[in-house]
Amino acid sequence: MSPALLAPFALVALAALAIPVVIHIARRTQTRTVAFAALRWLKRDPRYRRRLRIDERRLLAARLALLAAIVLGLAQPVLRGLADDRPVFAVAPGVDPARLPAPRQDNARRIWLAPGFPSLDNAPPTGGEGQDLVSLIRQLDADLPQGTPLELVAPSVLDGVDAERPRLSRAVAWRVADPAPASAPASSPPPRLTVRYAPDAERQARFFRAAVSAWTAPDLRPAFDAASTDKALGADPGALVWLAAGAPSAEVVAWIRAGGVALLSSDAVLPFEGEAVAAWRDDAGAPLAMQGLVGKGRVVHLTRPLTPSAMPAVAQADFPDALWRLLAPSPQPARVAAVDHAPLTGGRLLGFRPWTQDPGWLCSSPCCSRSSAGSPPADVERSRHDRTQTLAPAASPSASERRPPPRGPGHAGDRPAADDGHCASVPADFRSGGRGRRRRRPAPGDFDHGRLADPPS
Amino acid sequence: MSPLDLPADLRSRLRRLSLTPRRPAMLSAAGQHDSRNRGGGLEFAQYRPYERGDDLRRIDWKLYARSDRFFVRDAERESPVAIWIVLDASASMSQADLATPLWSRFDAARRLAASLIQVALQQGDCFGLMVASAGAPVVIEPGAGARHRDRLSLALAPLQPGGVAHWTRDVAVLGQRLGPSDLILFLSDGFDEDCVAGAERLAASGRDVALIQILTADERDFPFDDGYRFEDPESDGHVVGDGRALRAGYLARMAEARAALVARLDAHGVRHALHVVDEPADRPIQALFREATRS
């Protein structure tokens, strides 16, 4: 660990320290004038040599210290060697420690890919399954010094990943611990359905009976419970279909608030809490059902009476599928084989050093010019694009209905050709907002090459 | 704090003082000083009602004819001794100390003049005033009484020192008005050669002359600890220097000059005293007339 200056030429400004000294000396010679009639006996002693005396030394010291601090700040002091630049061998928590591959470098720092990055000698961190592994990888990449080799060991299957492979600032050694192919995710069983109807709506329950029958395998009994509204809900009702005018009973509302999923007929009254979005549209695009939250539960509210004339969709062949998607939407495709999700290189160097972005009137040192040249505009542009990609899966599930469904992670490789198609959902100001402050001094020839340049992968 | 309002303690101390001419009394009379007057009055002072014992010749019969009452003419008895206060009002008198910028040398001189007037009033002497300044000299002829004191106070109060006093001219003006046994008191800083020469010339012509040199405390102590620009108020000379460096040389030269002045005044028969502005005003009077009081 050794202190150093990024812009040592700024120390030339230390010459400004002479200013307060000169001020103090000059102000001292501005002596007070007194009338003195006995002047003829006042003679300056020729032997006396005037010494340089400075008054108000504490004020002078404070001024000098302030100036020196400013100059030192301009010189950008750094501590070299503060960071640990050993190679890093990071292991995701899902990997069995007994079956770890050996790190390629012997002196590697061995850590878990978990919050805080504990050492590998510790026990495997618990509860690590819910952590966003890719986020941790990005954090580790941002924390590490530039040029530190990074070796990552991931489980064979990654869950909850984004639609694009992570893009890091360095090339990493991506190793998959358990190369066994992951089993296909089990298909979820059809939801069980509980229908409560008012006496006049008993006929409408047949649509749901038919749908449940369509879901169920031929040799099984349909999980279907239809009764009048005065019958209480079962212990595990599954999804509830409420076909009655007016507000549902208090028991039903409490069940929904506790986390239940309910489909209400159009004449039922249960106001959403928060925003409601269209969850089901007919061929013309008109909304057939609105979806929103009530408490912790999810409510799908039909917009039309449940008759074939008002809502022809209930009589069509794909109604069971539509109902299934409404009541038990399939999860977002966020699972990928780790082999296919190796991080890309060329991400922006995330070491955040805002002072090196200053106009270089004092940054004449090679260190400074290198650091400003190390972030070409292509990287900046691309990282902003990464952000829009990352934001998209995090939106509410209903928003995904309007969007084209996210494609597989392998799609990201050929992204620059489809650049405009991806950015179409991004607001225009978001795309153009950063361009003005992207670079204070555009070098000749690099105008807007970032969006068109090929990624240096 | 007006310099003409004497504090009570100073007033009480002044009551024990007296101004005595150096020359012995030539004639003996009942007054404090010798008188050449043979009774009667030369100058009318006031009427007062007749009392038993008054000289019948002093009754104003014309007034009796008008008012049918007896009035006696009181005449002012002229004292042969007049006390002249010669006040220096040159620019150097306006110098004040750093510690007390509101109390200048001229204020001290005016207080000293008021004290002298007070003492002269106590002993019934006439007192006059001459102010030597850059302009025409202010001359107030000697007179006695409280009213004359007020007249002098009225003349002293608005004075502002300034410029260079014309001592040669003013001493000549004064010399024309002096009586043979008048007591002349110079109140000056004594830095002006013409002032000292004038006092010597008056003393050489046989007058009783005294000089009270008034110094400021800064001139006595030289307490300057810093760099200053010392300017002579009466010329454009100046000295820039550090007080600590100048002090020793200044004090030595000042003491030397003071000794030389004392020797010179003694040689010419001019009585002298030193007054520093932070001292009470009765001290120089006491010092000046001490030997006369003792005798």
From TrEMBL, chain B:
InterPro entries to which the protein is assigned, alphabetical: DUF58, vWFA_dom_sf
One Pfam family cited in the UniProt record for this chain: DUF58
Top-level taxon of origin: Bacteria
Domain DUF58 as annotated: residue spans: 46-259
PANTHER family cross-referenced by the UniProt entry: BLL2464 PROTEIN, DUF58 DOMAIN-CONTAINING PROTEIN
Protein name as catalogued: DUF58 domain-containing protein
